[in-house]
Write a structure and sequence with these properties.
Belongs to the GMC oxidoreductase family. The chain folds into two domains: 4-36 and 107-142 and 251-404, 2-Layer Sandwich (Glucose Oxidase, domain 3), CATH 3.30.560.10; 170-249 and 409-450, 3-Layer(bba) Sandwich (FAD/NAD(P)-binding domain), CATH 3.50.50. 24% of the residues lie in helices and 19% in strands. It has helices spanning 53-61, 69-79, 110-121, 153-158, 213-223, 229-234, 351-368, 371-375, 391-401, 452-467, 472-483, and strands at residues 16-17, 30-31, 80-83, 100-103, 137-140, 145-146, 149-150, 173-181, 184-192, 201-204, 208-210, 226-227, 241-242, 254-262, 279-282, 297-299, 314-321, 329-332, 341-344, 379-383, 403-404, 435-437. Helix 2 (69-79) packs across helix 10 and helix 2 (69-79) packs across helix 11. The longest helix is centred in the C-terminal third of the chain and has 18 residues, at 351-368. The radius of gyration is 22 Å and the shape is globular.
Length: 484
């Protein structure tokens, strides 16, 4: 966990980049995505966040009945084995015998203990369990680790059965398109990873379930001729089914760094398996909000971006936006597998996103000036830096250094309206039989926190839908729901 950044730009990273962002100084933003068994859960910081109850109730109110908080809570419970801090017990809303370990009982690096104290001094209360029903507050992160090592959904679900005779696992290939005949998905066409424009191999199936993520599931649908007819025609893809919402509604959480040098103490990294991020907080940028819209995340190292430089004995308080209003698109540039995809999150298109992230940035700067950091660690702000004083200068800093929180969603949104792609009842693609999408792309709105746990919840519910409720976790979730 201390070396998670080394996976970016590696062979395990699809190494995606956005198109130039007009409200971010024309920069392209790196979007690392997992090119490995386990997907992006194998690359991320393994932080487990359910989100706010209001997130899911908003899904239900926005055309997704059955996905409200009380509907999804039993699935969250069934997923996890929660290990709380020593001397405490899990609350009633937590799971204790699921396949995914969720650990909060680990030593806190001293700099993070001071960061927690700094947050409390600027008015953010400590929250012992942000997944226990109340999101607001500063907390020690809950993470997916076992025996001191990262743990992902591949390890939980697939590795135990990888030798099963009914499981056929193919690596080294790319999914070219879904095969559709008479309005029904009948299989997929794949091509070698080393020769993406080569002759495809057809694999027939009774049903196709796409789980390629918020960037690749819409790309595959578009290459299959399923999407906005005008766009497909423009890029030379024969139209199979006109479905306007495919690739629309792209949105992502955002970060902006506040970096401070520790001039009075050395920031310790005594164990190689200590994560460089251990705390975060959830906070409302305006008092009238019904749930937190910011999630600053903290690092014991300086998260220098391109164009930054400075000493290594420094830490980062990342301002974080988790309720973005801006929406973008995933679009093809051509019909071939090797043709690049245009990823446009349209950062700051809605100015309210910039206002919320600016409030989070100012809170982080205030934390650097508190006694636990300024006096005990000799913290001195490097970025934005003391020369950045006015709102105009702070906004310019955001435009220059805003970056991704790695939580893209929404591009195959579930719902019933004209822009919906999949049905909330069974996650089937509207207008195509035998085809489902099961990943973060189906989320109509991104939850207020890291998206790993909500994506796993969606997958578990989908497994129950596909099998008619005959999975072990389906039974566990049903029992948990009955207890409520």
């Amino acid at each position: 966990m201390s070396r998670l950044g080394e996976l970016w730009h590696s062979p395990e990273d699809w190494d995606y980049f956005t198109v130039p962002q007009r409200h971010a100084d024309g920069r392209v933003i790196h979007w690392p995505r997992g090119r490995v068994l386990g997907g992006s859960h194998a690359l991320n910081a393994t932080i487990w966040v359910r989100g706010a109850a209001q997130d899911y109730d908003a899904w239900a109110a926005d055309g997704c009945p059955g996905w409200g908080w009380e509907d999804v809570l039993p699935w969250f419970r069934a997923l996890e084995t929660y290990v709380p801090p020593a001397g405490t017990a899990p609350g009633d809303s937590r799971g204790t015998d699921g396949p995914v370990p969720v650990v909060q009982d680990y030593p806190l690096n001293p700099v993070f203990a001071s960061i927690v104290e700094a947050a409390e001094q600027v008015g953010v209360p400590y929250n012992e369990d942000y997944n226990g029903g109340t999101l607001d507050g500063v907390s020690q992160q809950q993470i997916n680790v076992r025996d001191g090592r990262r743990f992902n959904t591949w390890m939980a679900y697939v590795k135990p059965v990888e030798e099963h005779p009914r499981l056929n696992l193919r690596t080294g290939v790319l999914l070219q398109r879904v095969l559709v005949e008479d309005g029904r998905a009948v299989g997929v066409a794949v091509v070698p990873l080393a020769a993406p424009d080569g002759a495809p191999e057809e694999i027939r199936a009774d049903e196709v379930v796409l789980c390629a993520g918020a960037l690749d599931s819409p790309k595959i649908l578009l290459r299959s001729g399923i999407g906005p007819a005008a766009h497909l025609t423009d890029v030379g893809v024969p139209v199979v089914h006109d479905l306007p919402g495919v690739g629309a509604n792209l949105h992502d959480h955002l970060l902006a760094p506040v970096i401070a040098e520790a001039t009075a103490r050395t920031i310790e990294h005594p164990e190689s398996d200590w994560s460089v991020t251990q705390t975060h907080l959830f906070w409302r940028s305006r008092p009238d909000l019904d749930a937190p819209d910011t999630q600053p995340i903290h690092f014991s190292v300086p998260m220098y971006d391109e164009g930054m430089e400075g000493p290594m004995n420094a830490f980062t308080l990342h301002a974080g936006l988790v309720r973005p209003r801006s929406r973008g698109t995933v679009r093809l540039t051509g019909p071939g597998v090797s043709d690049p995809v245009a990823l446009d999150p349209n950062i700051f298109d809605d100015p309210r996103d910039r206002e919320a992230l600016l409030a989070s940035l100012r809170q982080a700067r205030e934390m650097v000036r508190t006694r636990p950091l300024a006096q005990d660690w000799g913290a001195e702000e490097l970025y934005p830096g003391p020369e950045v004083r006015t709102e105009e200068e702070e906004v310019a800093y955001l435009h220059r250094f805003v970056t991704t929180y790695h939580h893209q969603v929404g591009t195959c949104r579930m719902g019933t309206g004209p822009d919906a792609v999949v049905s909330p009842e069974d996650l089937r693609v509207h207008g195509i039989d035998g085809l489902r999408v099961v990943d973060a792309s189906v989320m109509p709105r991104v939850p207020s926190g890291n998206t790993n746990a909500p994506t796993a919840m969606i997958a578990e519910r989908a497994a129950s839908l596909i099998t008619g409720g005959s999975t072990t976790l389906a039974a566990t979730a049903a029992a948990a729901g009955a207890e409520d």
